[in-house]
Design brief:
Oligomer: single chain
CATH topology: Rossmann fold
Number of domains: 1
Structural class: alpha/beta
Order of helices and strands: EEHEHHEHEHEEHH
CATH superfamily: TPP-binding domain
Length: 240
């Protein structure tokens, strides 16, 4: 039985580390899958199958790949696009900034940095992959998603990985990212699983999503309603 399970767990679930789940040692050849140490090849295969077969697979790229701050980030950014292309029906919702976005955030354009579970719920995402998200923020994001949704979370990390992801791939570089892409393509070619996007349910849902986006795109600025009013000033207990 796995140590870490798909949510929703509840309002304040314990962190994976508090449950005694820790990352494999660097160079051990293992990765973390549902709280257990698993050989890397097996972990990558499991990761690829989950992305292919669960509903609305979504890539959440963070600032470390979005902003292209060095050549390695640019390379990972290009490979991230290849990864999204390899998974049928995969969506990309970036997290470009961790600061709150007010008064309104479009959950289909960016992932909400303060309430990532709301973005997941709005888009009916049941499997996601974080890449290029700073470790301290990824841990918070993963825990919030696990607490409040049934999304199968995965994290691709260039450092030590993330215990609160259902699958954590650590020490990610360009070669390992290419290996992930190759594994997806190999599984698709073998035909051992049917990608969610190619199932009747997946096709129908993706068609509905495309129609909704086309309708929203056709709206003019005059047709949209964004909250821009002044907030009421609350009571100040210290006021005289």
């Amino acid at each position: 039985m796995s140590k870490l399970t798909v949510g929703p767990i509840g309002l304040l679930p314990p962190s994976a580390a508090a449950m005694g789940i820790f990352q494999p040692e660097k160079g051990s050849g293992n990765q973390l899958v549902e709280g257990e140490h698993v050989p890397e090849e097996k972990a990558i295969e499991k990761w690829a199958i989950e992305l292919l077969t669960r509903r609305n697979p979504t890539l959440f790229p963070g600032p470390l790949v979005i902003w292209g701050w060095n050549k390695e980030a640019e390379h990972k950014g290009a490979l991230s696009l290849k990864l999204a292309d390899a998974v049928p029906g995969m969506n990309i919702i970036p997290m470009p900034d961790y600061r709150p976005i007010y008064p309104k955030i479009d959950p289909e354009a960016v992932i909400n940095p303060c309430h990532p579970n709301l973005t997941v719920q709005h888009n009916k995402i049941e499997v996601c992959a974080l890449i290029g998200v700073h470790c301290h923020f990824a841990n918070i994001t993963l825990k919030m998603i696990r607490a409040n949704t049934n999304c199968y979370t995965t994290a691709l990390c260039q450092y030590d990985g993330h215990e609160d992801a259902l699958i954590s791939i650590r020490d990610l570089d360009g070669n390992k990212l290419q290996k992930l892409i190759d594994t997806i393509n190999r599984i698709k070619k073998a035909g051992t699983v049917t990608p969610w996007a190619l199932t009747p349910e997946g096709k129908e849902e993706l068609e509905e999503i495309a129609a909704t986006k086309a309708k929203n795109k056709a709206l003019s600025k005059e047709d949209t309603h964004v909250f821009m009013g002044d907030l009421e000033k609350g009571l100040d207990d210290n006021a005289e």
